[in-house]
Amino acid sequence: MSRYREALVLLLCLVLLCGCDAGPRAAPSFHAIYRHGAVACDHHVASEAGAAMLAKGGNAVDAAVAASFTLSVVRPQSCGIGGGGFMVISLPGTATRPPVRTAINYREQAPAAAGPDYLALHADLNASKFGACAVAIPGTVAGLLYALERYGTLDRATVLAPAIAAAELGFIADEHYVASVKEASKSFADRPEYIERFHFTWERFLHRGKVKVGDPIVIPEQATALGLIARDGLTAFYTGPIAEAISRAVASDAGDLTIDDLAGTPGDGVRETAPMTFEYRGHTILTMPPPSSGGVALCEILGIVEASCSRRTLVERRAAEQWHEGCMDWLTIEGFSDESARRLHVLLEAMKHAFADRARWLADPAFVEVPTTHLTSAVYHRELAERIDSSRTLPSGSYGTPRQEGAHALQDAGTSHLSVIDAHGGAVACTETINLVFGSLLAVPEYGFILNNEMDDFLTRRGSANAFDLTQSDSNLPAPGKQPLSSMTPTIVLLGDEPAVVIGASGGPRIISAVAQGVLHALDGSVPMAWAGVGAARVHHQWIPDVVLVESGEFAFVGPTLVSARDDLQARGHVTETSGAIGNIQMIGRWLDAQRGWLMEAACDPRKGGRPAGIR
Question: Which H/E stretch holds residue 494?
Fold first, then answer.
């Protein structure tokens, strides 16, 4: 116990040294400038855990792994050791190793019992969303430990110490946690039998639906799990006592995920691959390939935008020591001129093309042939750009490349993203999820964490919608060991060999729209990078339903609101609706200052309430 408390004391001391906030304050800073490393998470305790690793001399991977394990504690509604994720890494070369550009896929996998009709035949129509049949094999622990062993510099015990301390001493419920509890509590109100069925979640995480801002949330059982992982590594989670507890929890709820499924994960559950790489206006962008749909869709959106516009690059603008109007820049526009509205229309049409192709073509490439090369080619993007009519929208069948079977897009709402850049220019973008808010609601009581409901990200019943009233193609049907399609879009933007932007988001398919707009604002905008990308108002269109979501005015933290553009969009044929938050971005921008050297601006999205940390 004393070791955990000593770790927390060390973490708080490092918070002060790093210039981070040690606790809540009246007007939290959602962005800050650092010189020697920065971490942006959607919870400040996780940002501080990552910064603590940087202060110890660790690299970006050490910081990302520490932050992720801490998010498992402080954002249990969004992610955790019961889920999975994607990590994109860029590290400079050393005397013993060439530069690293890689992507680590530890997305959850369907268990051996899951065939195409696994959930279609289930009597409970909610079996893909709540309970043991919704649970896919967790990949987070395997992925994080793989990244740490292969690319980190610190030992497991050091990197997990902040997460263990946070689990022992608990965290304070913030507005996002309270809102998530209210959302999850609706399921218990609608189905009172869930109170007993998911008793641990109801009592310990939701406090019977009565959590208030400022309430302490303490789950010391997860500290025990994290301590076992720190001591024994993969075996603790996948073949040892935690694996046994997971299989008991699943069996008690009549699920089919077995200890044999878990035992196969360390060897089969982590896929390292080359990142999807493409160019945008003089920058190299590294992001996730399928089964993430985010990388392909991001490439398609940016490619169509670039084919539709001609403006100078960020490099050229900065070389001239002045800002010029960018292709997608509407931040400094008073109201909406014809030209600014046209740009917004082009962006929305690009989204519709990308989401149409996402729905029709994308799935796990280990099981289905995915035409990635075609969907990401500049020739194809120019063809799609030429289809855009600047005066009006088109019929839904005019977007993307049609195929016989149609589909809508899916969401993964219980998601968290973190971004890291270290003092040497190492960068990590990491997005993780348990799918819906509080995942399957099924907890592992002995070890205090919630299991994912990733099975709902498959097509679970042909012709039926998923949790968000969206249907999918047969390419995304379940199969043993298959990974469901995802919207997660962890992304690193390089300028030459140096990281210029690290970005990602949470928020289901809105992740893709948010990341695309964050990149556009950072690279094409007329104000400094990260806070513009995070704080500007956003729009979203996912092809079907044929509706433009426009954030309400309260989300315009930088620049004007976008609601004033609605009349112009409607005149072009768009159907518009006012929306809540469109994604939650965590972003770091990095540039070389002539007097001060490399500087990093870390920005956390106020829509979710995180705060950055780093070494000043």
Answer: strand 491-495
